[in-house]
Hints:
The protein is mainly beta. The chain has two helices and eight strands; from the N terminus they run ββαββββββα. The chain has helices spanning 20-25, 92-97; strands at 2-9, 12-19, 28-33, 39-41, 63-66, 72-75, 79-85, 88-90. The strands form three sheets. Strands 4-3-7-8 form a four-stranded antiparallel β-sheet.
Amino acid sequence: MLVQRAIRTGQARQPVQVSFLDLAFGLLPAFRDLQSGETHLCLDERGRPARMHLIDHLPAHWAEARDEQGRVVALRDHIMAGFLRDGRFLTLDDLRLLRDD
Length: 101
């Protein structure tokens, strides 16, 4: 389920889609380095927490491959996608088993 809310961008207000999970559970897309335990939130082009998994603003040493413009197109094998909630990294399996609290 998606809902829309308006955000102010400059002078105009534009609708933004927010998923039910984002609203209900406070889940933020993130990545974790399984070797070091380092975790980073996904950020949009303005440096705000992203609403989906983006690899553009992760640490440079996590990149496995880049395109001709230098944008990351692949991450190293030990980088895992997941979500942050209350400072805790959750995998998709964790989410499947997550109890309401």
